[in-house]
């Protein structure tokens, strides 16, 4: 009896139903050579040194990391995180409200031991390490190449270094570093949990996602991803971790914990102007297009829920084929679209997306190769071009953009929608071609 091997729409070997076993084998390649670790550690060490030098010369470094540190100090001093629009320990150049859950201030407590600029250097160093880890996990999660197929990243360690250096030019990456943001760290926590720890059947699966959600609420969506894809124990562990951390904050500072959930969280205006060009979400798109119409945010939410239907279809299609990274990216980009506020530095998820798209480039015929090269190039160009910085923005200028400016100004938002639509169209055309070919075979000779 011959054994048939399932293939995907491109004729490539698809993962067998035992997708966890396939993931474990692919993730076994996550080892990194000492020389690669040395190379990847140089830039983070430079960031720490830069922070120390900036502290000695009183430089302005890391607006957001300064707020994180101030939040930690505020918590330690017993003051309120949300009663005022600024925190007592913020420097004059970072007078911003604390918009994170109170559990984030608890997790940021180690930053209180260092000056503001050194805190930026430490967060930057960890963020750069997190980016390298995310790239390495993404490469390890790719399907194993055919034995006779060329693959220029046959050395994952070397490929990680190359991607790492190139990705420093992505706007979400360098803006995250410039601001001292934690997006790269949160992404690495989620990837490590969902594609490595949980994929290996560890009892710690879901915990890192729960911790990430305690820092910034949007990772809660990934608990739903775990539940939908059958990893219900991981999802429950993540939810339990999140709830326990919230309960801990009610014991430490009940006033702030209660105020965050009842007053601060619903107040999106505390985060910033929803229509600003830096907000790349459906909510921002609708508010910019309708001149802040009262119904714009509700319409954006409705569109987001409608997009959940094809997103769920894509997610499950990738999951059943054993393509866990692709399935995870569907959830990540849908979350960015549906979130009321998705600043450009939140879009660091383009890092594993580009790794995935590049991995697909050799797997095509010379006749159709240009389509994938163009698609991958356009995705990368959107996040390298800094088009959002070129357009006029601020002081409500976005409300008066012309049509072509709205298209460019919503480039991040349109990218995953167009990419998903192109993928669905391609699958549909290939399915139609297969049906036509099968019908031609069934026609008797001579008819």
Automatic annotation (TrEMBL):
<feature type="transmembrane region" description="Helical">
    <location>
        <begin position="37"/>
        <end position="55"/>
    </location>
</feature>
<feature type="transmembrane region" description="Helical">
    <location>
        <begin position="344"/>
        <end position="361"/>
    </location>
</feature>
<keyword id="KW-0472">Membrane</keyword>
<dbReference type="InterPro" id="IPR018584">
    <property type="entry name" value="GT87"/>
</dbReference>
<feature type="transmembrane region" description="Helical">
    <location>
        <begin position="235"/>
        <end position="252"/>
    </location>
</feature>
<keyword id="KW-0808">Transferase</keyword>
<feature type="transmembrane region" description="Helical">
    <location>
        <begin position="373"/>
        <end position="391"/>
    </location>
</feature>
<dbReference type="GO" id="GO:0016758">
    <property type="term" value="F:hexosyltransferase activity"/>
</dbReference>
<dbReference type="GO" id="GO:0005886">
    <property type="term" value="C:plasma membrane"/>
</dbReference>
<feature type="transmembrane region" description="Helical">
    <location>
        <begin position="322"/>
        <end position="338"/>
    </location>
</feature>
<keyword id="KW-1133">Transmembrane helix</keyword>
<feature type="transmembrane region" description="Helical">
    <location>
        <begin position="411"/>
        <end position="429"/>
    </location>
</feature>
<feature type="transmembrane region" description="Helical">
    <location>
        <begin position="204"/>
        <end position="228"/>
    </location>
</feature>
<comment type="similarity">
    <text>Belongs to the glycosyltransferase 87 family.</text>
</comment>
<keyword id="KW-1003">Cell membrane</keyword>
<feature type="transmembrane region" description="Helical">
    <location>
        <begin position="92"/>
        <end position="113"/>
    </location>
</feature>
<dbReference type="Pfam" id="PF09594">
    <property type="entry name" value="GT87"/>
</dbReference>
<feature type="transmembrane region" description="Helical">
    <location>
        <begin position="295"/>
        <end position="315"/>
    </location>
</feature>
<protein>
    <submittedName>
        <fullName>Transmembrane protein</fullName>
    </submittedName>
</protein>
<keyword id="KW-0812">Transmembrane</keyword>
<feature type="transmembrane region" description="Helical">
    <location>
        <begin position="120"/>
        <end position="139"/>
    </location>
</feature>
<feature type="transmembrane region" description="Helical">
    <location>
        <begin position="151"/>
        <end position="170"/>
    </location>
</feature>
<feature type="transmembrane region" description="Helical">
    <location>
        <begin position="177"/>
        <end position="198"/>
    </location>
</feature>
């Amino acid at each position: 009896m011959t054994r048939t091997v399932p293939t995907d729409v491109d004729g490539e070997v698809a993962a067998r139903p035992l997708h966890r076993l396939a993931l474990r084998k692919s993730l076994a390649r996550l080892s990194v050579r000492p020389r690669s670790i040395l190379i990847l550690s140089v830039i983070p060490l430079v960031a720490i040194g830069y922070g120390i030098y900036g502290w000695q010369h009183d430089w302005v470094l890391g607006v957001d990391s300064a707020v994180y540190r101030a939040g930690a100090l505020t918590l330690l001093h017993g003051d309120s995180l949300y009663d005022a629009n600024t925190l007592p320990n913020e420097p004059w150049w970072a007078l911003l409200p604390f918009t994170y859950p109170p559990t984030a201030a608890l997790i940021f407590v180690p930053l209180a031991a260092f000056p503001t600029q050194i805190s930026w250097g430490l967060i930057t160093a960890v963020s750069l390490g997190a980016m390298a880890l995310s790239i390495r996990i993404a490469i390890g999660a790719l399907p194993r190449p055919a034995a006779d197929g060329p693959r220029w990243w046959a050395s994952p360690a070397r490929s990680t270094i190359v991607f790492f250096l190139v990705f420093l030019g992505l706007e979400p990456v360098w803006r995250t570093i410039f601001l001292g943001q934690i997006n790269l760290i949160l992404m690495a926590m989620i990837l490590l949990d969902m594609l490595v720890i949980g994929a290996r059947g560890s009892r710690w699966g879901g915990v890192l996602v729960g911790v990430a959600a305690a820092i910034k609420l949007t990772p809660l969506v990934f608990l739903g991803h775990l539940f939908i894809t059958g990893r219900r124990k991981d999802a429950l562990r993540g939810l339990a971790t999140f709830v326990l951390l919230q309960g801990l904050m009610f014991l430490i500072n009940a006033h702030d914990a209660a105020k965050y959930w009842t007053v601060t969280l619903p107040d999106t205006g505390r985060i910033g102007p929803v229509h600003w060009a830096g907000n790349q979400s459906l909510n921002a798109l609708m508010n910019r297009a309708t001149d802040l119409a009262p119904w714009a945010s509700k319409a954006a939410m409705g569109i987001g829920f409608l997009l959940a239907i094809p997103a769920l279809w894509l997610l499950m299609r990738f999951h059943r084929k054993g393509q866990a990274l692709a399935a995870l990216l569907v959830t990540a980009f849908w979350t960015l679209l549906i979130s009321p506020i998705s600043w450009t530095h939140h879009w660091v998820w383009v890092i594993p997306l580009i790794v995935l798209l590049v991995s697909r480039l050799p797997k095509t015929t010379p006749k159709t190769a240009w389509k994938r090269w163009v698609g991958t190039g356009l995705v990368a160009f959107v996040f390298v071009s800094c088009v959002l910085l070129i357009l006029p923005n601020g002081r409500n200028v976005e409300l008066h953009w012309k049509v072509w400016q709205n298209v460019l100004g919503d480039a991040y938002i349109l990218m995953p929608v167009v990419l998903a639509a192109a993928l669905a169209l391609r699958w549909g055309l290939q399915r139609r071609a297969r049906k036509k070919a099968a019908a031609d075979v069934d026609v008797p000779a001579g008819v």
